[in-house]
Amino acid sequence: xxxxxxxxxxxxxxxxxxxxxxxxxxxxxxxxxxxxxxxxxxxxxxxxxxxxxxxxxxxxxxxxxxxxxxxxxxxxxxxxxxxxxxxxxxxxxxxxxxxxxxxxxxxxxxxxxxxxxxxxxxxxxxxxxxxxxxxxxxxxxxxxxxxxxxxxxxxxxxxxxxxxxxxxxxxxxxxxxxxxxxxxxxxxxxxxxxxxxxxxxxxxxxxxxxxxxxxxxxxxxxxxxxxxxxxxxxxxxxxxxxxxxxxxxxxxxxxxxxxxxxxxxxxxxxxxxxxxxxxxxxxxxxxxxxxxxxxxxxxxxxxxxxxxxxxxxxxxxxxxxxxxxxxxxxxxxxxxxxxxxxxxxxxxxxxxxxxxxxxxxxxxxxx
Length: 367
Fold this sequence. Notes:
The protein has 367 residues and is an alpha/beta fold. The protein folds into 3 domains: 3-74; 105-290, 3-Layer(aba) Sandwich (Rossmann fold); 294-361, Winged helix-like DNA-binding domain superfamily/Winged helix DNA-binding domain (Arc Repressor Mutant, subunit A, Orthogonal Bundle), CATH 1.10.10.10. 44% of the residues lie in helices and 13% in strands. The chain has 17 helices and 12 strands. The strands form 2 sheets. Strands 1-2-6-5-4-3-7-8-9 form a 9-stranded mixed beta sheet, with helices on both faces. A 3-stranded antiparallel beta sheet has the order 10-12-11. It is globular. The termini are far apart. The relative contact order is 0.10. The model is unreliable at 294-302 (pLDDT under 50).
């Protein structure tokens, strides 16, 4: 068996304990070596937890790796290891990414251009309307919307993204096959068809209180920025904002009625320097993504504006695949700038990434 399946085994045994799992694997040098370690060797390893080496070894012996992988496949659930190219790039950059994520639906390379929309589970009608409108407008220009599928603002964000014809990612505090809250059953199916339902907790894991603060680091970690739309001064949404700040991501907030206690959280963030958001344009501006907006008055490129970097790369592409390294070399651009420009071209539908980091024109904007 390859290393991938051993990562799966450890994620099933230690879900939501990313830092412990990383420490354990580093100690032994690989997930397989850790899996094959005896009780004596485990007793001197970090990350074992309160159950002790005997308890961990006992649970490990009861987990059939091949059977676990087969059950996931039959349930339509994929698992993605941090070592794989399909693992979300934004998430890989945080301090403690989950070594393995469980996914229903699909993760795409364009999902790295994402914004988290979070807030109260008991919002005002104003908060619901703003969250849905922001998500809809973001999705309409190709920005994926990330949230936690909780009642209230999270649900409004997912619904808005779907209404805008875009993609949305729901990060759960339970297994990917567990619908919570239950009334979101239909929403889950729509998200799977237009994005992904994602969790670091294995299938069958029921929601527990400690899961939600832990999963909030993934919500902010998947996104370029986090927008808080109504939240009490002590709330999960503000925990997500704190994670975003720790991860070096942008934090934004929507102002509201000063007598509404749910505006105290966003107002506090604004006082501390968060960008005040009145519409999707403020979010796009804060993230420096103005050039992804379609401009109908522009000539050529199917009405889509291009930056000078995008123009340079687009001119090197055709319907024949070109390798990323060749594009970087021929364009003379720094690798980071070239990859960012290619991402924007892909979002605009002008370029498609093929397996092996190859790029082609789609034909939509061909000259």
